[in-house]
Amino acid sequence: DTAVSQTPKYLVTQMGNDKSIKCEQNLGHDTMYWYKQDSKKFLKIMFSYNNKELIINETVPNRFSPKSPDKAHLNLHINSLELGDSAVYFCASSQYSSEAFFGQGTRLTVV
Amino acid sequence: KNEVEQSPQNLTAQEGEFITINCSYSVGISALHWLQQHPGGGIVSLFMLSSGKKKHGRLIATINIQEKHSSLHITASHPRDSAVYICAGNSGGSNYKLTFGKGTLLTVNP
Questions:
Q1: What is the pLDDT of residues B89-100, one digit of tens each?
Q2: Spatial separation of the C-alpha atoms in residues B103 and A60, rounded to whole Å
Q3: In a mutagenesis test of the B interface, which of A36, A38, A43 is the best target, namely the one with the most B β-carbons within 10 Å?
Q4: How far is CA B60 from CA A95, B14, B23, B100, B108, in A?
Q5: Is residue B80 helix, strand or coil?
Q6: Between chains, do A100 and B98 touch, taking CB under 8 Å as contact?
Q7: Which of B31, B92, B97 is the closest to A45 by Cβ?
Q8: Taking CB atoms and an 8 Å limit, are B96 and A98 in contact across chains?
Q9: pLDDT in tens, B30-89
Q10: Which of A98, A105, B13, B16 stands 20 to 30 A from A16 (CA)?
Q11: What tens digit of pLDDT does each residue of A16-65 get?
């Protein structure tokens, strides 16, 4: 039973399109995150939510909009996709600042 | 300058060798995570520690708060340990985020 699941695993799309990545956790955690891993494999925080409330928005373009319908879900919607958005996006959850559990990642390729 | 610095960037070892990966972090980080990422991409949390030492199987993590330094050790390394090991710090409190090091690519040859 997967603790943090995100879909899809792979996403190939054309520039200018709008796409969403979904994330769900069944751990009962209050905090969820989106991280981006670039082509050099460096991970960086994008957003964190605590109990459906946005806590951190780390200078991410407005084209990226997280949505948390409830504390078990944190979806990422991206408008007007650009080539530079190609990366692996990881969802994660934790109970406040404790150990984090990661989803399997979504490899986004913008062509 | 990244708040979390890791070394080495790349490490190649022979099966059975003792491995050490180092991580230094800046003021304001109250807990250190060690993560493992295999080829194929999934990230697994190995340890979270804010003081002392933790052990799980062949893996040992230590942290020295005064020196702001943590190490991950692998005893009796095995080819299946080949992965990227990432240290990440969090500031605790209401600052819900991890700041990552750039990772160490470990290759263990048979």
A1: 987 665 567 889
A2: 23
A3: A43
A4: 23, 19, 14, 19, 17
A5: helix
A6: yes
A7: B97
A8: no
A9: 889 999 998 877 899 999 998 999 999 999 999 998 899 999 999 999 999 999 999 999
A10: A105
A11: 999 999 999 999 999 999 999 998 889 999 998 888 888 888 878 999 99
A90 and B CB contact within 8 Å:
yes
A7: its two tokens:
């879909």
Residue of A nearest to B43 (CA): A102
Query: With 0-12 CB in 10 A as exposed, 13-18 as middle and 19+ as buried, what is B109?
Result: exposed
SS3 B79: helix
Dist. CA B84–CA A106, nearest whole Å: 18
Q: Which two tokens stand for residue A25?
A: 């956790």
| Among the listed residues B11, B5, B9, the one whose alpha carbon sits nearest the alpha carbon of residue B106 | B11
Residue of B9, B38, B43 to mutate when probing chain A, most A C-beta within 10 A: B43
Question: Could you tell me which chain A residue has the CA closest to the CA of B105?
Answer: A41
